[in-house]
Amino acid sequence: xxxxxxxxxxxxxxxxxxxxxxxxxxxxxxxxxxxxxxxxxxxxxxxxxxxxxxxxxxxxxxxxxxxxxxxxxxxxxxxxxxxxxxxxxxxxxxxxxxxxxxxxxxxxxxxxxxxxxxxxxxxxxxxxxxxxxxxxxxxxxxxxxxxxxxxxxxxxxxxxxxxxxxxxxxxxxxxxxxxxxxxxxxxxxxxxxxxxxxxxxxxxxxxxxxxxxxxxxxxxxxxxxxxxxxxxxxxxxxxxxxxxxxxxxxxxxxxxxxxxxxxxxxxxxxxxxxxxxxxxxxxxxxxxxxxxxxxxxxxxxxxxxxxxxxxxxxxxxxxxxxxxxxxxxxxxxxxxxxxxxxxxxxxxxxxxxxxxxxxxxxxxxxxxxxxxxxxxxxxxxxxxxxxxxxxxxxxxxxxxxxxxxxxxxxxxxxxxxxxxxxxxxxxxxxxxxxxxxxxxxxxxxxxxxxxxxxxxxxxxxxxxxxxxxxxxxxxxxxxxxxxxxxxxxxxxxxxxxxxxxxxxxxxxxxxxxxxxxxxxxxxxxxxxxxxxxxxxxxxxxxxxxx
Length: 546
Description:
By secondary structure, the protein is an all-alpha fold. Helices cover 65% and strands 3% of the residues. The strands form two sheets. A two-stranded antiparallel sheet has the order 1-2. α7 runs antiparallel to α8, α9 runs parallel beside α14 and α11 packs antiparallel against α14. This is Integrator complex subunit 10. InterPro entries: Int_cplx_su10.
């Protein structure tokens, strides 16, 4: 008997269909027959699940679209009969299935709801003067961003001229915007965190992280940072302390520029466009109370709070808006969701580890943006993650070092003397040398003004030859005879030599020998030295920040 004959034979005895579905998963007739049985029996959940399966696996079958047309007719009809309610229930069941983790399924389901939306939006509209606009809304749009633009124009027009029509079309508008949001957000996250959908990590699937731009860290020091608390006069004359989120909310409407290495990110323009379209969809859905209420209903029905990819998009959007306090809360939700998924899978995959790394780096970035420097370094230095990804990543390591430099340079160059912070700055400025040379010379000027400098970890972590020469020069008559305490326990050593009337001869000799040894270390791998600095000094680094 041929394979086709086997399929036809198994369709007839319906008791064998469950086995047949397993044996012939690619046979449409078997899958559809199983769905027909559940549909005729009006078993909502199983019928919805089976319809979802055949829609994903056999999207080109005309019978599938006829089923969708029947469901769409039920949605258009206000009938309360049992079968109509069953068909509406099937539609809801399809929508809440875990489609978000399957790219192919998600694209098909978008097509499915776009079709339903088109029917509802074009044929179901009762406002005659807008009929032409409605009927061309979906047909004329060649992209999701164009569709969003049309819907946005529609909202502005109807909310201003036809409040009743706007109220009637609210659900359809929300459906359209939600589809654009999910489509754009999904493609954005697919680009920035591909391992979430591939199920495994590889060199080509390393996640991209949206972080504060610290490229200006080597420039001169700003005494007052953006996120220091300021005072603002209220209408009644009282003063209110403004937090950073208050300020950034005022500037929410002003777009921020996202810098990306175009050579390292293929399709960067398309990715940023998806991000922009998704943000604008979100804003539109929250521009009217009625739209927001309907959108919340959809999110509740679809259980979007369980979609890791959507939480990633929301976090990036909140960071883009400058709402860092809210971003911290979103990152906490992401962490708990990740933990829950790992427990359900009973394993910790390399991809989930990458997702954890991404969240930790963003956590540090948000704390820094809020001016919370100790909290900024804590997740980077006190966790185990610095050993895994950041110190082996050519992209993340510079950010971590720049973040530390940004935190310490604010303390190092204040009027109050802080040799510890200044020493940390010198160590960190070695990375990407000579980009930070001007800032290093500023540090040298400050040391000369002080007349002395104490940093006992100097010879453990400073291997840059230019820096070593500069510090050696400071000890000379021409350099100002600056008193440098760079050796461990050198303070006690000076006291000992003074008591024994050796004065500074022994200290000078120790310094000369230490400097000679240090010059021989200049060929050491700088990343290894800085990695050792971060690991060995992590406690003192965190504790030395406010």
